[in-house]
Every structure is written in structure tokens, then in C-alpha cells.
Amino acid sequence: MDYQDMIYTKKEGIATIILNRPDKMNALSRGLFEGIYNAVEDATKDNEVRVLVITGTGQAFCSGADVKALAENASRPATEEKERPRGMRHVPFAIQLQQCDKPVIAAINGAAVGIGLDLALACDIRIASDKARLTVGYVRRGMLPAGGSTYFLPRLVGVDKACQFIWTGDMIDAKEAERIGLVTMVVPHDELESATRELAEKIAKGPPQAIQSAKRAIYEGLKTDLETNLKYTMAVRQELLKTGDHKEGTTAFMEKREPVFKGEQKKKLR
After folding, report:
1. Structurally, what CATH architecture does the domain formed by 6-204 represent?
2. What is the rounded distance in angstroms from the CA atom of residue 141 to the CA atom of residue 143?
3. pTM to 2 decimals?
4. Burial of 141: CB neighbours in 10 Å, binned 0-12, 13-18, 19+
């Protein structure tokens, strides 16, 4: 599969999307939108993939949309079909990443701006380089966030901080982002790749059905009440009790050894 302006790899259960337009600060072009959509779709369907990592090359994670390219598209004659990225024609990547049962880690290597920040916020975990800088940014263009910030930020940092961050368009550094709960952890820039890999490998070694079911339960829990969530998790628990990974986990505990989870992906649990 051809990916424009992006590197997509799969190794040892970990799929990695690398935004690769360093000369454009990884601004999202039409081709890059398409590439992200296709790669996430592939990782979601591939039973061998247990974790998805998204990162960038150069000084930016993603500096937002490619404004010049969008302006050129907008200036086309009305008779020309203005193509939109497949990911935008179908499901916005914020929804696509939330619906992906595989854990998704954003490795924020530099600036995350506008829709680039939306992309990071849609991931489950955010590991930031100490050189990372983050801003919603839309207000500085007379716009409101429309890619997920107004949904994710209040849940991560609280309503008041979300309002302040969105309304001012301020740029914050990695340490402040960690302090307010916007990113999960901050690591030295030179250690970002290894720290991300270490966490991804740890998750990839776990039981995939249990981990994927837990992700779904977490996000479903944000939309429902406690009683509904308990009923949901108890029903999934009954199904997990029948899996080989549950048997392996119990056996390994009794034998005082590390479990080796193989995963059983043929049947998707709730």
C-alpha cells in the first residue's frame, strides 16, 4: 500500500505511523490525511497488530492543516470536483482512532498545533518530548476547534483549563502540558523513541482481547452510568473467562512465571 508523505511500518505487534513532511512541519496534506486513514484502518483490521504508535519526523509532530494546499483547493473553479481526504469523506480520524480497539500511543516529538493537536488528543496515551510545544491555535485564525479538541480537552484537563487553552490560543510547553494532564508523560527528547517503544512492547505482550475490551469499556464508561458500565464489563468478563489467554494468565500465576499471551482474535468481544 502506497502512503504519501508518511512512513508506515509493522513489527513485532507494533504498527507505527510516522508523519514525514519535515520541510512542512508535518502539516496535513490531502495525501497525508488519506495515508493516516488507510494506515489506521489497516492496523485496526490486522490481528497481528496489538499497538499503534503515531509520531512525526523533524521538529514537529504535526503543525496542523496545510493551509496553502487547502487554499489552493478552495480556489479551484466550481466546475472542478474539490476532492477531500478519504478520512474526511468517511469517518474523521478522531472517531476512527476512538473506534480502533487497539491501544494508540502518540509520541509527540515537537510542535502539535490545531488539527495536529486534535490528532494527538484522539490517541489513548500521549508521550511528549521535552521539546514538544502544544496549542489549539484555531482562535488565532478566527475559528473554533472542529477536530476533537472541544470534546477531549474538558475530559483531560477540566472545563476551565479547556476554556482558557482554547480561547487564548496560547502555546504551552511539555512540562505544563504534563502538569495539567494534557499529556501522559514527558521524557527527554533523545529518549522519546525508546520510551514509546518500551511502553508499546509492554502493552503488546499483554493479552490483546482483554486489553482491547478494557479500552472499549473505558470509553463506553464515559458515555454511560455506573450500573450500565458494570453490566457491560461483567458480560465481557464472562467471555474472557473462556479464552486461552485467561487460562495462560492463571496458569502462569500458579507456576510463578511470566505469562505468554498468544491472543485469540477470531471472535471480537463486545
Report:
1. Alpha-Beta Complex (3.90)
2. 5
3. 0.89
4. exposed
